Amino acid sequence: MSTIEFVDLRAAHDSIRGELDDVWATTLSRSGFIGGPCVDEFERDWAAACGARAAVGVGNGTDALELALHAAGVRPGDEVIVPTNTFVATASAVVAVGAHPVFVDVDPADLLLSTDHVAAAIGPRTTAIVAVHLFGQMAPMREILDIARRHSLSVVEDAAQAHLASRDGRAAGSWGTTAAFSFYPGKNLGALGDGGAVVVGDDDIAERVRSIANHGRSAQSRHVHLLSGRNSRLDGLQAAVLSVKLRRLREWNDRRRLVASWYEQALADLPVTRLRRGAEDDVFHLYVVRTPRRDELLAHLGANAIGAGVHYPVPCHLQPAFSTDRPPSLPVAEQAAGEIISLPIHPHITESDVERVAWCVAGFFRARHVA
Ligand SMILES: *Cc1c(COP(=O)(O)O)cnc(C)c1O
Q1: Distance from residue 11's CA to the centre of ligand 1 (Å)
Q2: In this structure, which of 64, 67, 175, 231 has its CB flanked by the most CB atoms within 10 Å?
């Protein structure tokens, strides 16, 4: 029985092997290792793809979030609203700028930020909302921006799972005060190592982020440091790899949507709950369904050589790193955390693989007499 990988990076890279080999040769001959023409070119193309003014390549997605929060004006002591159902990095970035994450519950239908919960969490010290576009689907940005405007809050997009996702005809990264992307290898657009980008609609903010991420250096003079900065830079090799993959991204996202449509059909009559998905240009970073028998199903798929995962089994407000003496009760996310399972999805999975996954899920419930 062959294994169905959860994410198959080997297949993706095999399909562009020649171009990746060229990247190595070009980078060596150009000797542009940190910054340089490959980074400039990728930043320009990525900003254009997102419909934003500028992109600044940084070391990873978590740094991108931290810099995006800072650039959006979040300061030590501020409160920042964060959906509890996200990867912990969303919350760690808030803590890294000295602010306090205020965790809120999510919409039961799609597990994205719910505007009712956001509105209820706004207090006198709130300065920003992090809108996480989880699983490849965008948070309800129009409504979130409305609330933010009424309360004079910044909005930072965590678009680490939403490369070229869009809603109401506008791409992820073009809505917020600032936005953060991760190019971790397994993301829809991934490097061959760590990488990230801050995407902004304003040249001055972009320059400030660029300076902070490069030792606080002045754009005019290499030896003048305007701020006490840090080092978080995208390297030339990764930027060149990202440019190669960016040329495939629309096609690969289309393919993910097709795979999701196979799942929708194949799972339609099975006792799993599908999330509300497929909002215009959902890019299906993950394909998540729910069942109260999640742990058993996960083990069953594993025993049948099918890679599945859980994103995420512990909501942030219950993680030891963030929990307080009296953690809030966020029942939708708490229940979902015990029921969600992510089925394998990537651009190179085949229709017969998806059928085998669905067949295996069906067999699991049949054996347990669940209709
Ligand atoms: C991957 C991810 C991050 C962090 O990105 P890194 O590049 O791993 O630092 C942040 N938020 C979300 C939602 C992610 O999926």
Answers
A1: 22
A2: 64
